[in-house]
């Protein structure tokens, strides 16, 4: 029997301040927004793509002004069916973007969205403060040792297979939340052995999960707090939002806002969002209703 959801009033204590190897801090005592910047031509939501440095800097400035605490830069599209691009191409796209943002916004907390250890290392050396790995270390055996050596905060996401095969890997034999708990428990132990200190958990909504499975995970998000690590919710404009409404990603802002509130009620500390201002407003209203979240 699945546990019944109820808005938590008190969550297990977990570390809520992350330290970048460059000395910048990310304070998650109050929920924050991670703004999405895709340096790709084929990300699933066209509105998130940036095609030039000028566009990148303008969008970053808008996101920071709207209240983004983190800017997440991705140069490899992980939408279902996306092409697998070679590592040199991912690096060629990502590093100039990090350099430009670091030059124009020296205080900004930057995240490198990559599952490749060598790309992650180059990104951190270029100024990235966090590594956001959709593979959870399963797509590159060197990732944990690399982030441990760099002493960089790390987002550990749940994924089966690869971005190219994950849509066919949604058959879970048992309880999906128990599977995630076991996965995160074992990966957390491996991260600790590698010397990684600051870790966030991402359930991986839509990654090797149907819309119904993603909704179940969202409803049962409080159960993931058993591991004592802060949670990132990445559900912005995804199929779990627009599919049940019969819409497309372009019309999914209202639905995203609704599910962001559910994620906050479940204890999420970081919302990865295309629409920063709206996500920030959702957090502000949530904090007014549940002051304990601060």
Structure description:
This protein has 294 residues and is α/β, with parallel strands linked by helices. Helices cover 37% and strands 14% of the residues. It is built from nine helices and ten strands. α3 links the parallel β5 and β6. α1 crosses α2, α2 packs parallel to α3 and α8 packs parallel to α9. The chain is globular and about 45 Å long. The relative contact order is 0.15.
Explain briefly what this protein structure is:
With 294 residues, the chain is of the alpha/beta class. The protein is 37% helix and 14% strand.
Features:
10 strands, single chain, globular, alpha/beta
Discrete helix count: 9
Can you summarize the main beta sheet?
8 strands, parallel
Distance between the termini: 32 Å
Could you tell me the strand content as a percent range? 5-15%
- Helical proportion, percent range: 25-40%
Count the beta strands: 10
Structural class: alpha/beta
| Strand order within the widest beta sheet | 8-7-6-5-4-3-10-9
Tell me, rounded to a whole number, the average pLDDT.
90
Q: Radius of gyration over alpha carbons?
A: 17 Å
Q: H/E element string?
A: EEEHEHEHEHEHEHEHHEH
Shape: globular
Which consecutive residue ranges, at least 5 long each, have pLDDT under 50?
A: 1-10
């Amino acid at each position: 029997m699945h546990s019944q959801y109820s808005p938590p009033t008190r969550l297990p204590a977990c570390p809520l301040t992350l330290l970048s190897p460059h000395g910048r801090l990310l304070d998650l005592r109050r929920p924050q927004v991670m703004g999405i910047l895709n340096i790709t031509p084929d990300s699933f939501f066209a509105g998130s793509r940036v095609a030039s440095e000028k566009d990148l800097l303008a969008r970053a400035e808008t996101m920071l002004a709207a209240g983004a605490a983190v800017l997440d830069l991705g140069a490899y599209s992980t939408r279902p069916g996306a092409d697998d691009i070679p590592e040199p191409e991912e690096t060629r796209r990502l590093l100039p973007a990090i350099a430009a943002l670091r030059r124009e916004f020296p205080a900004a907390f930057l995240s490198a969205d990559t599952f490749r250890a060598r790309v992650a290392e180059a990104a951190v050396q270029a100024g990235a403060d966090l590594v956001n790995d959709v593979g959870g270390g399963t797509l590159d055996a060197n990732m944990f040792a690399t982030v441990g050596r760099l002493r960089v905060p790390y987002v550990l996401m749940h994924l089966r297979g690869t971005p190219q095969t994950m849509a066919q890997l949604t058959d879970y034999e048992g309880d999906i939340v128990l599977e995630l708990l076991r996965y995160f428990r074992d990966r957390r132990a491996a991260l600790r052995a590698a010397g990684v200190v600051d870790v966030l958990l991402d359930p991986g909504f839509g990654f090797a999960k149907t819309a119904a499975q993603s909704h179940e995970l969202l409803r049962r998000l409080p159960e993931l707090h058993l591991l004592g690590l802060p949670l990132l919710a990445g559900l912005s404009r995804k199929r779990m939002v627009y599919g049940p409404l019969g819409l497309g990603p372009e019309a999914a802002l209202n639905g995203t806002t609704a599910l962001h509130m559910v994620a906050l009620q479940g204890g999420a500390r970081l919302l990865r969002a295309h629409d920063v201002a709206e996500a920030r407003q959702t957090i502000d209203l949530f904090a007014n209703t549940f002051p304990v979240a601060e």
